[in-house]
């Protein structure tokens, strides 16, 4: 793991960022990969089998990003909806590619049982820059609430609100990376004028359930499926994963609505956030994508069986 700097290079310790610091931060962000090549081109290949729709557009300076979703072509009012989201944090690569891989390879068995809605890359600007935040230094995954500041989140919330059919399941695909500790959490502390408190990145896959409406049997069904593909994060000596008490093997709980997390935007009976660890020497990129796909398939199978 890289060494965490004593102080973040932007801003003054203890002082929240203003417009000047945010502008300085933005100047340091560079495009490192292509949303058009990696995501939009993959979606074009799906148009023969699915409805691919634009549900919003982001304009950041000269860059314009269409926000895209994939829908079942045979959408029916008597079928429940399965919502899959990826790339809410753009740097979390397997969330994006796992969602795309699921649609490309694994939807045939569900076509006549559910309505599928998949938003594979919620934050394309951040995807290209391998970053957690959007261009305004705002975390989209803390903005799924009234008054949220991220256009990425607002557009997705409006898309989901337009659905009349009941949403049975929402699975949001994420990663926890070493850069959470070396870059993103230090940047968050600096942005908000707070001290940075070092933590430990868990080695392995885990899930985030809802504190208010937990579904422990559902979460464990996913853990049992994914452990056949990659290793599950153990709790540390305090019985915690990433600073939160482990509710069960590979599962922690957050107050989803209070934090404005993506999985709080529906009243789906089954909701979970996956967390893949791509920096482990025990996991390849292919395993990370496979873990996401496996979690999605296991979630759908469990939801339909109950």
TrEMBL record:
It comes from the Bacteria. CDD domains: M14_REP34-like (cd06231). GO terms for molecular function: hydrolase activity, acting on ester bonds; metallocarboxypeptidase activity; zinc ion binding. The keyword Metal-binding applies. It holds the Pfam family AstE_AspA_cat. One of its GO terms (biological process) is proteolysis. The keyword Metal-binding applies. SUPFAM superfamilies: Zn-dependent exopeptidases. Keywords: Hydrolase, Metal-binding, Zinc. Belongs to the peptidase M14 family. This is Peptidase. It comes from Marinobacter confluentis.
């Amino acid at each position: 793991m890289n060494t965490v700097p004593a102080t973040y290079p932007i801003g003054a310790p203890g002082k929240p960022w203003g417009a000047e610091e945010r502008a300085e931060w933005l100047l340091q962000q560079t495009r490192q990969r292509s949303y058009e090549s990696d995501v939009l081109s993959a979606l074009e290949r799906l148009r023969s089998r699915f409805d691919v729709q634009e549900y919003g557009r982001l304009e950041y300076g000269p860059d314009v990003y269409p926000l895209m979703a994939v829908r079942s072509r045979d959408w029916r009012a008597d079928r429940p909806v399965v919502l899959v989201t990826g790339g809410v944090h753009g740097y979390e690569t397997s969330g994006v590619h796992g969602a795309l891989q699921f649609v490309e390879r694994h939807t045939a068995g569900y076509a006549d049982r559910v309505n599928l809605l998949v938003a594979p890359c919620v934050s394309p600007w951040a995807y290209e820059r391998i970053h957690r935040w959007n261009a305004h230094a705002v975390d989209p995954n803390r903005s799924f609430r009234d008054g949220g500041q991220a256009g990425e989140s607002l557009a997705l919330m409006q898309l989901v609100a337009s659905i009349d059919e009941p949403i049975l399941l929402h699975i949001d695909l994420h990663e926890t990376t070493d850069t959470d500790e070396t870059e993103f959490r230090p940047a968050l502390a600096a942005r908000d004028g707070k001290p940075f408190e070092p933590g430990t990145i868990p080695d392995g896959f885990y899930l985030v359930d809802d504190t208010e409406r937990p579904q422990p049997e559902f979460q464990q069904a996913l853990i049992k499926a994914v452990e056949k593909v990659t290793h599950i994060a153990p709790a540390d000596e305090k019985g915690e994963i990433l600073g939160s008490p482990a509710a069960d093997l590979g599962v922690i709980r957050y107050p989803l609505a209070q934090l404005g997390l993506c999985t709080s935007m529906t009243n789906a009976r089954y909701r979970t956030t996956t967390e893949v660890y791509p920096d482990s020497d025990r996991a390849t990129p292919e395993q990370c994508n496979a873990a996401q796909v496996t979690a999605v398939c296991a979630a759908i199978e469990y939801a339909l069986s109950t």
